[in-house]
Specification:
There is one protein chain. By secondary structure, the chain is mostly helical. The protein has one domain. 96% of the residues lie in helices and 0% in strands. The longest helix is centred in the last third of the chain and has 123 residues. The chain is elongated, with a radius of gyration of 46 Å.
């Protein structure tokens, strides 16, 4: 026969073990969360410091670059703009000239034409079209040549500062990447170690909890066996 006080004690022990297991897991989860947060903060700080170092290295070269690049750009733009305006004016003039010639030919073709006059009109139309195409093509070539000349002059004037800036920036970026690669690798290694330790301690908590449960069950079983034997003995004696 089960003693209510013994059963109550067993129930309290089981609940206490479960509570301790849950509290230990919660504490372990918080420790892991805090440790990972610290690692993340350290990685972010490393990135900010590396970025600031890169900025300080690049800034002087950037200043020199800006002193040369912007004036050269400002000087190049008007030349290109002027070439564009000249192109637009030439195209308008060529179109107006072709249109005027075609209108003049159109006036001549009203009514019945003799074969010689028709041939002459056809020649004038073809000549107007050809002149327009040639003018447009020549204007386009002149424009492209002006743009190319301006670009070549711009590249020549900015070649040295561009090269220096690119070299400084590439070197600073390489240093930044190397720092971040090492920091990221360290972050990953430490995070993996934290995870590994976490699961090792988590398994230990679970093992302790299960071992305690087995001990309770054994004690309970032993208690029942003793109780049954005692009851059987009393029955025999009575």
């Amino acid at each position: 026969m089960q003693n209510p006080r013994v059963l109550s004690a067993y129930t309290r022990a089981a609940k206490r073990a479960l509570r301790r297991r849950d509290e230990a897991v919660q504490k372990l989860d918080k420790e892991r969360f805090d440790s990972i947060n610290i690692l993340d903060s350290e990685l972010r700080l490393t990135e900010r410091l590396a970025a600031e170092t890169m900025r300080q290295v690049v800034e002087p070269a950037q200043a020199v670059f800006d002193q040369v690049y912007k004036p050269a750009q400002d000087k190049s733009y008007p030349a290109v703009q002027s070439a564009r305006e000249m192109l637009d004016a030439t195209l308008r003039e060529a179109l107006e000239k072709k249109t005027a010639e075609l209108l003049a030919v159109h006036e001549l073709t009203r009514g019945k034409l003799s074969a010689p006059v028709k041939d002459q009109c056809d020649l004038r139309t073809e000549a107007a079209e050809l002149n327009h195409r040639q003018t447009v093509a020549q204007a386009g070539q002149t424009y492209l040549a002006s743009v190319q000349e301006s670009e070549d002059r711009f590249k020549q004037e900015t070649a040295e500062c561009t090269s220096i800036f690119a070299e400084v920036h590439a070197r600073a970026k390489a240093d930044f990447d190397a720092i971040m690669a090492a920091a990221t690798k360290k972050h990953e290694d430490l995070a993996n170690a934290i995870q590994s330790k976490y699961w090792e301690r988590r398994d230990a908590i679970e093992s302790s909890f299960k071992a305690a449960r087995l001990r309770r069950i054994k004690l309970w079983t032993d208690y029942l066996n003793v109780a049954h034997k005692t009851a059987d003995t009393l029955k025999t004696e009575l």
